[in-house]
Amino acid sequence: MMRENKGMRALQYLILAIIAVLFLLPLVWMLFSSVDPHAIQAIKLPSHLTMANFSAILTDPNIMRSFGIGLLVSGFQAFFVVAISVLAAYPLSRYPLPWKKPFLLSILFLTSLPMTAVIVPVYQMFLYMKWQNSLIATTIFMISTSLPYGIWMMKNFMDSVPEGLEEAAWIDGSSVWGGVRKVVMPLMLPGIFTIAIFTFTGSWGNFFVPFILITAPEKLPASVTIFQFFGNNGLVDYGQLAAFSVLYTLPVVVLYTFAQRYMSKGFSFGGAVK
Amino acid sequence: MDAAGVVPPRKKPRNAQDKAKRKLAFWLMIPSFVLLLIFFITPMVLTILFSFTNLSLTGANASALKFIGFQNFVTMFKDPQLAQSVWKTIIFVVFSAVIGQCFFGFLIAFMMRGKNRTFRRIVGLIIIAAWVTPEVVVGFCWVAFLGDNGTLNLLAHSLLGMKPVAWLYTFPMISIVIANIWRGTAFSMMVFQTALDDIPAEVEEAAVMDGASRWQLVTKITIPMVRGTIATNIMLVTLQTLGVFSLIYTMTGGGPGNATATLPVFMYKQAFVAYQLGYGTAISLVLLLIGALASLLYMRVLKVRL
Fold first, then answer.
1. A16 and A124 fall within a common domain
2. Residues B9 and B142 in one domain
3. Residue range B182-208, pLDDT digits in tens
4. Which positions in chain A touch B272 (Cβ < 8 Å)?
5. Where does the pLDDT of residue B2 fall: very low under 50, low under 70, confident under 90, or very high at 90 and above?
6. Range of A177's domain?
7. Which residues in chain A touch residue B18, judged by CB atoms under 8 angstroms apart?
8. ipTM, interface predicted TM-score of the complex
9. Is B168's Cβ below 8 Å from some Cβ in A?
């Protein structure tokens, strides 16, 4: 490739290393403090390692329930966004429909609207319908907000599966559904995983929606209960806060590691828009 | 020939087939239609309607909802806090997203090219780790970093002998901008890595052979070749940053005072802390309109062809 002189190369390595350290510092605080028996606000090497912070979190039934609620909400959201998007994406990708273009343009438009903006009327709607504190209604709302993105991505992934393969399955006697199940879906698995993982992690990290729509403490997901360490009394148990953060971040890291080989696809705009 | 006789009967079944497809398409899309209608379109319409009412959670207005015309908007445009909030939103978006994330994302992606594989992997993973970390945790990590007894003060004290600074109070805007750059740079980095990888090596080699300097190579060849990606990325990060709430709420709560109250935080404060839902809705309409404009611009930039 390009010829660079050695000094320039070394300088770039140095700059990248400095950037990496700066990116690492805030995270290292979390990792160190989570195993530190006397964690403080500043970063410091633990005098000795302890699992006490983690066991305090893991044995707290309220915190564990909030993790369970978070998993359920995010799991359902990911599942239904994928299922509903597949249904909608199939005709959008395969059939000539008169209203396809305006529909897709509206979907693309909706994907990029800041959802924060509609929370006040949604809150009012929830009050009026007596849905406040309903985890089911909150999950359905969250499913709806992820749908435009899900449909848009799913349609693009489906477009990349050649129609000829599906026709071959029909000739072999498959129904439309059979063709989708046996040919289209297996080829789209990377896409389906990408959408499911993006939806799950987005939902898992979503603090704002449950914060507004759920007030009952026993129904709050982990994204909100994390605030309990940030007590109003000013006393913060940094060790437990860090341990909670580590446990709360873990599922996301695992999923992204799993998704990494598919992810690069989502970052190329060239082929994504058809 | 009999072709003329064949065409009409063939046309009929095809129409019938199209009709059947349309019907099936309709049923397949019903769940999406219903959900989008109830939870996306309705709230947007309500946003417009409510912003003309005296909607409120408490007080005398809570029971008697009535249309008050443009009063919320009059209040809004007279409210110096709103103008400030819009201004803060612009600063936050421009500095943390357009300049910060895009610039650093490009810089990192660019410098990573042709470097040692393991080195690239480690640096990339660290930066992506910041991106996958949930927003609230990012907020806590930065509070710990910038707090009065935090890491930065510790470093500044032990390296430079500086007195501790209350960073989050003294420089609240800079603090949230830096935290958001930290959080979002990975996205732009990955976008630019994909785009830079797509540049054929011959193009740059040819330029080098023709005697282009390194600076010329970057400004005349590399950047123009990823111009489309840069534009798209700027739009995407702008849209993502417009709605940021949790990070700011965790770090500063919009304060001190309203120093970091960007539109989403300002809206939250008016609607759910001051219980002025009507006024809060009027603010969200502003946010929605800015988002809609940016979204339309984004679609223009993408040159969507369907």
1. no
2. no
3. 999 999 998 898 888 888 888 888 888
4. 123, 212
5. very low
6. 62-266
7. 96
8. 0.87
9. no
